[in-house]
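Q: How would the structure tokens look for this protein?
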Amino acid sequence: MARVGIKSRAFEKEINFIFSKSGGKGGQHVNKTETKATLLFSINDSQLLSEAEKKTILNKLKSRISTEGILIISDESSRSQHTNKENAIKKFLALISKALQKKKVRKATAPTYASVKERMKEKKRKKEIKQMRRKSAFD
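A: Here is the predicted structure in token form.
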């Protein structure tokens, strides 16, 4: 299910960009140029992802996905539109590959000697507390 080394070339046809004015450093330049890159990727319309992969991504990245099923990623860390576009693509690929990774199954192990001793010690202490609460034969 998870693909190793997802390439941006495969997704290029399915990714759209919107550029807008960015805040932050840049002086007067920042007021004139649209350097903020917003990546838009429609998960439901993707031809590259299987139905199972789409469900997994929709489930794991639901906080980043709009109600129309569009994954939205923005970057405005640089003064360069090209650099921000590249950073957005890197974030996108990292998110998709992480969402498609299978979680390792936990292997059950036997309790350690020390943990068994500690549990038995605690059980004995509880037993003594409860015995002290009982009415004695002399009451």
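DSSP finds five helices and three strands in the chain.

Residues 113-133 form the longest helix (21 residues).

Upvote if useful.
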